[in-house]
């Protein structure tokens, strides 16, 4: 009898222990999140921003959150990433605002020509603008951070661009609507496509080249086919990392805090610095293959600025016609750009 009672007690304790371990395992099961982007796994954003961010969140939450990154359009096309996040196809998504025409009207101010001198400066500008002026343009998502890439230049396969006259009739990849308007002012035929499609377009002869930052020469291995580079500082493009709003709302406050501590202005500055550093790699790659890198004289650059000076006025008029504060916002970007340049 005593033996049976002893065995029953041991069995009972074993069951309790197993139930406890099972409950503990359920309690510590991590929150698994998907982060989608459309760049390659060697792109500077994947290496310098998204991977360190994901690891930091996992470490700071002590494994309560696990983020799996899906690069290279694995979950969807580049243009669809905002909707993928807002509808829950992915939990987090990388978005380039200019890929969806008209969706972020005020945000597009940062892309007006000859306005931003570097990714570092532009990323500080756009984060401050977002926090104060742009919140209403992002329904359905929590914007974790927002930044810009480094200034875009002319990159050609077979012809060096030195003057306005050299641009006439060229077919160049344009990343977005603001850059399309600028290229048309220069007599260029713009071809709108996401940057992952650029290599094929140039290689096939569909495009003569592109306007992109030097970082793109490195990130997308374009030094194989691009042989002429003209320093122009034409524009920058804005981009962001966003999270599905419902996913954000359901995170515990302590985990939300960790996300915010590792994104926001910290990520903005990190991304800006990454792009500026990657520009140097692009220039090095161009030099390595003996490409020509040309800087136009000041008087020629002035002609380019004069030719495009109507674009800010047009943007302001379009915004004001929609009841949006275009004039004040453009002036604010100019002020902030000068402030952060110092």
What does this entry look like structurally?
The structure is a single chain. Strand 1, helix 2 (44-60) and strand 2 form a beta-alpha-beta unit. This protein folds into 2 domains: 27-149 and 237-278, 3-Layer(aba) Sandwich (D-Maltodextrin-Binding Protein, domain 2); 153-235 and 289-341, Bacterial extracellular solute-binding protein, family 7 (D-Maltodextrin-Binding Protein, domain 2), CATH 3.40.190. The protein has a 6-stranded mixed β-sheet with strand order 7-6-8-5-9-11, sandwiched between helices. It has a 5-stranded mixed β-sheet with strand order 2-1-3-10-4, with helices on both faces. The mean pLDDT is 92. Helix 4 (119-134) runs antiparallel to helix 11 (264-288) and helix 4 runs antiparallel to helix 14. 49% of the residues lie in helices and 16% in strands. The protein is α/β, with parallel strands linked by helices and 342 residues long.
For this entry, give a set of tags.
342 residues; alpha/beta; D-Maltodextrin-Binding Protein, domain 2; 6-stranded mixed β-sheet; 14 helices; globular
SSE map:
Elements: H1 2-27, E1 31-36, H2 44-60, E2 65-70, H3 81-87, E3 92-96, H4 119-134, E4 141-148, E5 153-156, H5 164-167, E6 171-174, H6 177-185, E7 189-192, H7 198-204, E8 209-212, H8 214-219, E9 228-230, E10 238-244, H9 245-249, H10 253-261, H11 264-288, E11 292-294, H12 298-307, H13 310-321, H14 326-341
Parallel strand pairs: 1-2, 1-3, 6-7, 6-8, 9-11
Antiparallel strand pairs: 3-10, 4-10, 5-8, 5-9
Helix pairs in contact: 2-11, 4-11, 4-14
């Amino acid at each position: 009898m005593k033996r049976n009672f002893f065995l029953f007690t041991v069995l009972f304790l074993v069951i309790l222990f197993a139930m406890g371990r099972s409950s503990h395992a359920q309690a510590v099961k991590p929150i698994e999140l998907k982060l989608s982007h459309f760049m390659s796994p060697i792109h500077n954003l994947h290496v310098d921003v998204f991977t360190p961010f994901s690891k930091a969140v996992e470490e700071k939450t002590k494994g309560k959150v696990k983020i799996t990154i899906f690069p290279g359009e694995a979950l969807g096309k580049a243009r669809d990433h905002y909707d993928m996040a807002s509808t829950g196809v992915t939990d987090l998504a990388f978005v380039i605002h200019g890929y969806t025409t008209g969706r972020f009207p005020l945000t597009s101010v940062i892309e007006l020509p000859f306005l931003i001198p570097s990714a570092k400066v532009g990323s500080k500008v756009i984060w401050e603008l977002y926090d104060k002026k742009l919140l209403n343009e992002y329904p359905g998502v929590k914007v974790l951070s927002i930044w810009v890439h480094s200034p875009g230049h002319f990159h050609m396969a077979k012809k060096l661009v030195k003057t306005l006259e050299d641009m006439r009739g060229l077919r160049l990849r344009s990343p977005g609507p603001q850059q399309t308007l600028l290229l048309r002012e220069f007599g260029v035929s713009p071809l709108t496509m996401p940057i992952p499609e650029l290599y094929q377009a140039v290689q096939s002869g569909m495009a003569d080249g592109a306007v992109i930052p030097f970082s793109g020469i490195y990130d997308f291995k374009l030094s194989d086919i691009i042989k002429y580079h003209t320093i122009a500082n034409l524009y920058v493009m804005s981009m962001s990392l966003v999270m599905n709003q419902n996913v954000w709302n359901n995170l515990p406050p302590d985990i939300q805090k960790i996300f915010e501590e590792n994104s926001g202005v910290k990520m903005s500055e990190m991304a800006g610095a990454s792009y500026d550093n990657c520009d140097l790699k692009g220039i090095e790659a161009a030099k390595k293959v003996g490409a020509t890198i040309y800087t136009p004289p000041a008087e020629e650059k002035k002609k380019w600025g004069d030719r495009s000076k109507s674009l800010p006025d047009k943007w302001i008029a379009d915004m004001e016609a929609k009841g949006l504060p275009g004039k004040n916002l453009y002036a604010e970007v100019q002020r902030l750009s000068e402030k952060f340049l110092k």
